[in-house]
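Thread: "does anyone have the structure for this chain?"

Original post by V.I.:
We have the sequence but no experimental structure in hand. Need at least a predicted one for the grant figures.
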Amino acid sequence: MNTISNSQDKGSEKIFSIVVSVYNKVNYLERMMSSVLSQSFLNFELILIDACSTDGSYEYLEKFNDPRIVLIKQPNMGVSVAKNYGVFVSSGKYIAFLDADDYWEKGFLEEIVRLLSKYHGYEAYITGYKRIWKNHTDIVQYENKCADGIANDYFKNRVNGWGVHTSSVVVTKDIFNRVGGFPFLLGSRIVGKSWLVNCNGETLSEISSYSLDSGSVGLNRSFLLIPQPLESIVDLEVALPDIPAEDQFMHDSVALVSDFIYSSKILSNWDGDVSNQMTTIKRKPVIHPHLFAMCAVLSSNKYKVCQSHIKNYVKYLTVSFLQKVKQLPSADRKIIIRFHGLHAVGINSYLGLFVTSYLTKIKLRIRRISIKLSPKV
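Reply from O.Q.:
Generated one for you, tokens below.
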């Protein structure tokens, strides 16, 4: 491949577009901004999407005078809409994501450049990351025996508890758009339906009920693409809080079409003690887009992936899905189970979901015990 330019001149072609969605994170912005602006690799643009913060976040970001920064204010329609729009306006070939309350080590982008130079023709890259809580931290790596490599056991490792964190991933803009980016949920009370939609304004699937009871807001159509058949619906809304695991949908969808290249270096930090982050919000729509996507894979022959690994992954995902779906009324429960396509693994009812989830829990527990008892080489 051609030599990657490290120039930060305003007229130079940007290699990376770093997309950050911001909503009421003023207490963490100094740390995040410092980690980006102190990167040893300089050729990037930083796209900050502020969702009308009320704590002074936007005003804080306005103070930065760096030509690489693009600051945009948009109505709060959730992190998926914000990040998708950030990618839409980006100019870099490669997209990096960073949550406003996370931060990088100084050499994050430089390590990605090293991987780009070593592994030609790939479209997705990850580093190791640290999860930080008040009382402890842990390290998450795809592999710790090699410095870098091809993550060709992605779905097998997912079942063992490993996962990609959005603030440690870089993908090409092309593959982001091909897999549909971060999905979001639209709904209409008048029509009595909901729609799972991707960043390209394409309907992934229709739900035969209004599924935004956990919260919703009206749309500002300047910042997202809407499926053409839905444009005439006057009361169209987007779910807020967002649907869960919208990031895992993107990561898993990328893994279906391109192997991730991994680095074992710990260059990203996830802060688990932030009170208003998405992972701490309890009430969300009971729509799991990554579960939906994996069930769709099992129903088609489109992807050349190990079907048994996908099937085990789907069963693994049902453990957390069960905790959410059991809270629904019986009629809604049937609709949601049917929507996710769980019949692909033989689950057609709540009882089937419960049994599969219970057996999967036991298998995971046995596997973890056997790993602990395995002799160290």
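V.I.: this helps a lot. The radius of gyration is 21 Å.
O.Q.: and The mean pLDDT is 92.
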